[in-house]
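Colleagues,

Please find the record for the three-part complex below.
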Amino acid sequence: MSKSMRIFTLALASVLLIAGAASVPAASSEADFKAAYAAAEAANKEAGSLRNQWTVTAAALAAAKKAADAGDFDQAVAQSKEAEALAKASIYQATSEKELWKTLEIR
Amino acid sequence: MASTIRVRATSSGETTEVQALIQHPMDSGFVKDVKGEIIPPHFIQQLTFEYDGKSVFVADWGPAVSKDPYVKFSFKGGKKGDDLKISWVDNKGATDTITAKIQ
Amino acid sequence: MHVRSAIHFALAALALAALPFLAAPSAVADDTSDPVADARAFQKYFTEKFPKLKLEDFVNGPYSMNEDMHRQWEEKEQFPPYEFSVEMGKEMFAKPFKNGKSYADCFPNGGVGIRQNYPYFDDKEGKVITLELALNRCREANDEAPFSYVKDEMAALTAYMAFTSRGKPFDIKIPNDPRALQAYQNGKRYFYTRRGQLNFSCATCHVQSPGERIRAEVLAPALGLMNAMPIYRSEWSGMGTTSRRFTTCNSQIRGVPLDPQADEYRDLEYYLSYVSNGLPISGPGARP
């Protein structure tokens, strides 16, 4: 992928993530949080098996847990979904880089 | 025990250039350790270079100076073979001193 | 728009965008497994990029990239900040373990003047052994507790050992063993792979942008990068080892660091050291 195209796709993804994260469904429950958190953790675990976890994923998971402990399940769900998105992006990165690293190699 | 002060003084006839490296933690008192507790302040408060009985350079230091400080300066005069005395005092009252020959 | 569907849309968009590029594999040439050719190409790339530099200048990292910094560094070398660490390392190295043996018993030539041979591939274990790993293994074999890999005692010991090898050219060997070649390949792949939320690879800074700035720092070229290790970094106000640099680099680009002597890092050090073969050891070094 050319450098500008890569920047474009990442910019596109981040704009969509921000747009998506701004809107939240009405009053999440603890069950909603537990499901969202489990999904995020599973994705982050997969990223871990690919040896490519991001620090921001861990931060989002921690923020989700902190919000849940304080009883703010809307925020907890939002942070969990953010964590899941970040974890999935890190998986995508690790997978695509398996081939794409060669584009940077000095020959 | 080895001195905390390393110094090199070189005379060019008219002026003498002095370089010194001092081993000292220079803890500002604003930094916390891994447990979250403040590391108490521990820094050099005064550093003095004396030649021929007179102070040629005096530094009043505080928490802003980093660990293992390095100083470089020049003074008028100073002959090869003469002594240069360096000493420091820190906020805990500890001191160290060394006398070096000007090269 | 629901958060979930926004994410799905974003991922779909990413996947769609990537398709035309992944569908054209001919754009990505097949990777070679020829370390000799790699090293030659690697050194050629940097010497052509910086024609005014001599090959041995590359071991000074950012100081060869910037004249003002070079002048300051030359002054600093008269009273280098790593001096205290080298002295501490020398004392530590000479002090025997509780059982009477010493570090000298673990290393060829008593541990003096051998740093340029590390990392090496151990055919019994089938893995790369770095100097830091060898030192801790020496301790454990003699019933001493291992040191942290990233700083303090480990940095002092490696600083002393590097100092005894100053000027000697890097002499990393890849034996005729498919596992060694694989380790080298792993290291190479790691070096060029993008990672972390900031999506940088080691190459992004050290191959694409040496001499340029990242925030306030001047970037070092990848050629000669390992030669100055371990380093006293003003940023750390202290010494740090190769593994300290690898782990902190990872977190700086927002990737979770691996264990300091994880296979990936050992292989990375193997690759980076090999492609700098012939360049002199300049360690320990001082860096901003």
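Chains B and A do not touch (no CB pair under 8 Å).

Comments are welcome before we finalize the supplementary table.
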